[in-house]
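Ticket #4471: structure export looks truncated?
Reporter: QA, pipeline team
Priority: medium

Steps to reproduce: submit the single chain below to the structure queue and open the exported record.
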Amino acid sequence: MKYFQSALFIILFFVFYSCQPGNNSNTESTDIANPEVDEVIAPDTIPYSKLSFIDSISTNPENEKAPVAYYSETWIIPESKDTALNKFITSSIINELVFEAGATHIETPKEAFDESKGWFFNDFTDLASDFETAGGFTSETESYVEFNSKKLLTLSFFTFSYTGGAHGNYGATYITLDLENHRKLQLEDIFKPGYEEILTPLIEKGIREHFELEESTPLEQVLFEPTVPITDNFGLLEDEILFDYPPYMIAPYAAGEIEARIKYEEIKDYLKEGIRF
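Actual output as written to the record:
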């Protein structure tokens, strides 16, 4: 529901933004400091703020009806007293939001925004001749803190994009960071060998709950296949692990984003020693 509301807000925002005079000729990015966060920062957690960037480009700034591309990102900015920890969290976010292998030259959110925005605007410019006098490209990414503890930090990144066609695309990606060892957790770091045996039926159970399906109803009634793959798009939360499947990954677009949630109590015997939440 949170991401559905986010997508609706994004669409309304860009409709409003595109109607403002002069915005279509804006080619300079805007930094918007946002001190408000989604939660009260509790003791023994990572303090943070949010920083937003937005930019747009028009195929013809003098024509208010010319196609326009909008690009925006909202970043989590860690504000721990531990500078090395802040750098690790920021570089982990950069690795998620900048889709370039080995982008070691990028060190700040602003540099990452400019890099991704440049690719997006280049694609728009290359395809601009295919657009009518109205319409264009849109991409908006919002970052959320899903779980914040002294040892673990789980973040999600929700992106809505429209690059032509019948509808836009959207989806969330999750990462869980081990703050003690400065690493992004993989399933193999959390579970003992052979975890697939227990996770697969529990994920399928979670998907049945998501769709309110009876045990006797075949999964392929709502999914592409009768079984569900274990995805590496997961996040550790306070009392459960969440597996997220964006539209088209295992089901048609109309099925929306699919979540399977598994309580730690159900999998405690399969967790590696030393995994602490």
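Status: closed, not a bug. The export was complete when the record was re-opened. Leaving a note from the reviewer for reference: The chain has two domains: 2-184, 187-270.
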